User: Fold these one by one.
Assistant:
Number 1:
Amino acid sequence: MNRRTRQQEQPQGTTSPVLGGAPPSDAFLCVRGLRIHFDTDDGLVKAVDGISFELERGRTLGIVGESGSGKSVTSLGIMGLLRSARARISGEVWIDGEELIGADADRVRRLRGQKMAMIFQDPLTSMHPFYSIGAQIIEAYRAHHPDAGKKEARAHAVEMLDRVGIPQPASRVDDYPHQFSGGMRQRAMIAMSLVNDPALLIADEPTTALDVTVQAQILDLIRDLQKEFGSAVVIITHDLGVVAELADDILVMYAGRCVEKGPAEAIFSTPQHPYTWGLLASMPRMNRERQERLLPITGNPPSLIRIPPGCPFHPRCPYADRTGGSSETVLPELVATTDPAHTVACHLAPEERRRIFTEEVEPRL
Amino acid sequence: MGAYIIRRVFAAILLLIVVTMITFAIFFLVPRLAGETSTQLAAQYVGRDPSPAALAAVEKNLGFDQPLYQQWWEFAHGIIAGRTFHYGPDASVCNVPCFGYSFKSHLPVWPEITARIPVTASLAAGAAVIWVISGVSIGVLSALKRGSVFDRLAMGLALAGVSLPIFFTALISLALFSYKWPIFPNLQYVPFTENPALWAKNLVLPWVTLAFLYSALYARLTRAGMLETMNEDYIRTARAKGLPERQVVVRHGLRAALTPIITVFGLDLGLLLGGAVLTETAFSLPGVGQYAVQAIADNDLPKIMAVTTLAAFFIIVANLVVDVLYVAVDPRVRYS
């Protein structure tokens, strides 16, 4: 079973498409076999090692994983923002029928900010301290509307600030980032990213640097704006609470690979991968007894230079001994569960997995 | 903001007063502490084997017979309100700003120094234009092409630039381009108002020599600043907005990297306006620096006082301008 699926996936992951070829599917965003490796003095860092997903407009994909699992690198790779000469990128990224990997750098630059936009974790360091909020939004607008006058661009900036809920946008447009509060800054950042009405918005840990009270507001804002603009949203986070709030689909990453992928309800109701179980068990919940301790996943994420052979999660997996040793030697491939949209890369037999989940895992959640 | 500037101006004046006091004290107290009397001090400014009467007259004329604080007071008074000197029966009026008469040549100091300021200003301004343009652009390119052949060559040259003393580079450039290949022969200062072309031509070697040192410093400074700012999150944001790379580098990277360079530039320029001693001496430019060297060699107090006060003035003003400019450069800076 493993052997067969592996052979099927192999050609997709390693061959680069011929430029001008047809997209593998008609989804708005289609990522196939994306690999991002970095040549370093210590060895080859396999930050992303074969990620595939599809995303339609109006839908939200949550990419979840620990620090160093390759989530942010994936998003930077899609945006074409990995500029290191040591980065080796292969695979396919199609956006609206256009291939980005291997495309002309200037073409990708024109798509950035216009068709695909990104917001970052820390809005204070992500905005230029020397330019006013308005100037930075105007710059983003005029980069893709070279004929737009200053007045028109400024009107757009004020309108965007208004739409993201900044009070008195007409006067605050001239404020500098340091004059905004953290939540306001992230709102302004969102205004800047949406000023050109991009069809794809990638939010990389958009709430991590914010106060808890502001986090929910920002998530609500992203959801409302997505409805309004109808864009596709990729939300990257280590916080399952965030994806529970927003995502239609969830992709769980571990050591640069996808270990589980599926509709959000399925991931939360019947999670399949022991790593996902670990993430869910380590999440604080209101309905849990107070004396109960959160259950952390034991051990640390592996070094991306020396990823463990076989299933990369097996050294930390409490159920690895129930796979008959295959977890230490064979790399598991994503296979469908009973729900064809819900896939998991795990050596545990499906019945065994179901039994472990209902008997050992679910009572603790 | 207005109150801040007024406060800074007052502080600057106070600082100038202190600088003149210290210079005064060094000039008079050091020989005094070594056991010299004011008569012995005066003997330096009279001919060989003077009569006691002539010595006493000089001592009185130069004011050495008065207490030190009174001498300083008259000096300061002269700068602000002018001063009248009595040489026996004659009286001569020294107009504002009066820095007195040279102890040696008995010529008024202020007109001599104002005649030399344009020379020093020409040298400093021309060199500044060269070093800012070359230093900053080399620094930016080096940072963007870090580790390349260009970067290594430029940084090697910069290391030479900061290590080689001016009197060495000046003499080498003179030997090569004025004597061996006389591209710039007979270097002497020609005022701009007299012949702008010759003014520029004769200043090329001093400019380039002086700029070589500062270019090297600025290239290293700019490179370090650019390497740091180009790794900032807001640079990634600028790229994520789809800005062309040139705009990312210049408007976002360089803008932030330039802030510390502006500070250093103000101070360097202020320092040079007070006299580029080595360059002026090597190229025989009749500027303030050369004047200062002469004044110190002659132990000529009024000249030393004038040069020191002028240099301190330029540095303090440059400092003030830089601090005020900072608001325009970095909006996070606010004066309270």
Number 2:
Amino acid sequence: MTWLAWRGQRAQLVAIVAAVAVFAGWLALSGTADQSAWLAVSHCGQHCSPLALNRLSSADYWTSPNRLVLTFLPGVIGLVLGAPIVAREIEAGTNRFAWTQTIGRTHWLVTKLLVAGIVAAGAVGALDPLLAWWTGAVRNGPRILPMVFSVTGFVDVGYALFAFMLGALLGSVIRRTGWAIVAGVPLFVAARAWVQFSLRAHLAPVATFAGGLPAGSMIVTPSSVSIAYAPEPSALMNDWQLNQGYVPVGLHGPAAGQTWSTGWNALNRCTGPFPNGNLQVLEQYQRRTQHCIASLKLHYVQQYQPPSHYWRIQTAETALFVGAALVLLGLTVFVVRRWRT
Amino acid sequence: MDTGNGSSEALIRFRLDSRSGVPAYRQLVDQVRHAVALGVLRTGDRLPSVREVVTQITINPNTVHRAYRELEVAGLAEGRPGLGTFVVERGKGGGHGPSEQQGALLAELRSWVAKAGSAGLDIEGVQALFAASLDEVAMPGETGETPHDEKRGRQ
Amino acid sequence: MNDTATVIATSGLSKRYGRTWGLQDCTFNLPRGRIAALVGPNGSGKSTLLRMAAGITRPSAGEIRVLGSSPLEQPRDVLARIGYLDQERPLYKTFRVSEMLRVGKELNRRWDDAKAHEYLEDLGIPLASRIGKLSVGQQAQVSLTLCLAKRPELLLLDEPVAALDPLARSQLMQVLLGSVTDEGTTVLLSSHALADLDVVCDYLIILSSSRVLLAGDLESLRAEHRLLVGPRRDRSNVPAGAELVSATDTERQSTWLLRAIGSITAPGSDMVEPTLEEIVLAYLRQQPAGSHSRLAGSRDLSLADDPLDSGEQVRAR
């Protein structure tokens, strides 16, 4: 049965592996170009030649599209390999042959799923070491940040397996390969988006940084003739900032019944609108702001996930998607066993 | 697989006329009797195996079994386990070629056919008369109540 | 119940698709060793019945037992012992013939690889060809080989010779009957080729409008039915002890199919034993009482002009 599972899916498995290999080659090429362009620019500092800058900008041009492809690649691979597993056989009518042989449907299905699933996971996983290098080479930024997180580490294997089983289940229910993929796309995107934007922040304990000023707030010193802006606290560099704002002193988040904007709104009501004007007007505003903060008993707090939580969140998110894939596997087996005209 | 040319070992080839109305097993029995009467099959010859017959003419194997059983009952054939079914003559010595009696009958029949022809009968007419007399006259060795179908002139 | 003398036993077997019935109240017992013909117009429920026997279709009502087990509840027991050939003869079109045989070997416990290769070699089907490039007849042979190499006790064949040219048809039947002779396999096959079936089959099931019109040993059925051909008779003038199945009357002549257990006499007319074709056509011409009937004398069966069909048809019951 292993031979049949391979031989029956050979065409698409080989195609996917080839496509991934081609894309990997492309990433290596464009990544190397970008890497050397960045290096050149980092050496010349403030006095870079237009040539070097041009080179960087054209090399960097591909980073965003590549990242976009990488974001969707595991989903596409999974759906494309998963959907035909059952649907293709039903479309061609060959299930009426395969399911009247001695072997039984569960064995047939599980073997097909294993062979294709391993290829899907493997193709995506094989890219991961390359991506670990690539993300640094193109200066994608801190790994913990959402857009980079999804294309680094091993979480993409979880995405691929989930999309794969989603495709297989939809294929066995809808019984049409094309429509299964079409239906799978929004479902997969929705699942990914929900995890990324709602769940991921909570997959590791949220860290808090209290005190200081919101980054970018204006600092006016009476004796200075210029305006400075508060920098990001060095403790928070490379962190994934989740929430930030003014909350009651003693708390690390909004009070019960309040939101993160409650503090901002209260502060703005106290200080009034941001004034136009000269340095003195701005300095008065700054004092008024500090007075309001003290009288309202607020302090500035940031919630974030630090880079040290990266692997923990990777593991948790991967486990989530793999767990969901296993549930879908059970459902698919159930649907196939029950299939009758 | 036999492509229809017959095994080199089979001594006779059966054919079935599915439109004649005569049951298939009956046709096989008749063809064996006919072959024996004409001397095509002699005592000790092996009839085609069931497998061979089924391959020659796509027919139910049970039908062949039945025909061979009837030949055994009639004393015309004998089944030897593992070897096949063989022709045996029913007592009338030798069986090498048609007997004198049969030769005389044949001559009589030929002249009758000629007479019928000159009386204006065509082939169908002759066959109808022949079938009618077969129906009416009881022949030795007939088993069962199988009705003979006349040719009903259907085309 | 593991009564293996009866290979297929159905009782009130029915299948409903939405509002329409695919098969209604089907009851028969097919004994072992028979070659059974399943005949009827398209859409009469033949494929549905075969698929229920193979476990691909779930009955809506009634019961079916194949080789003593339920195809639905004990598929493992049943599938290992049957060979099912679907009407569409599904095969993996991109596979080579040799690979297709390997599929059969991998999917089945009992598999006679040598026989499978022998069959195809004798037919001259090259093992290296792709299935998609074979002719319809060759594909049908490959499909049949995949069934036969399983050494099944029961073959379920859905129109195995449909769309085959006469030579291919003959070759397929040869292979089938040769295998049946060797193994004693029981066969249930659906077909429109009535003339061919007459000498091949010894059990008959007639379906029409999803109902079973007749089922039984062909020889008993033949013995129970008589074709009465004679001068025109009145429909009420049915010979004593007989039941009128179907009647065809011209101005001068009547051709009736009668059914009786004992002997029937009709002086002045001929009484002959009907062929399978004549029995089937007569029953199919009946219009089922009370149901929305097809056109009288529907000719879904692909035969040459039926010489009995002239004049009016009649409702027999």
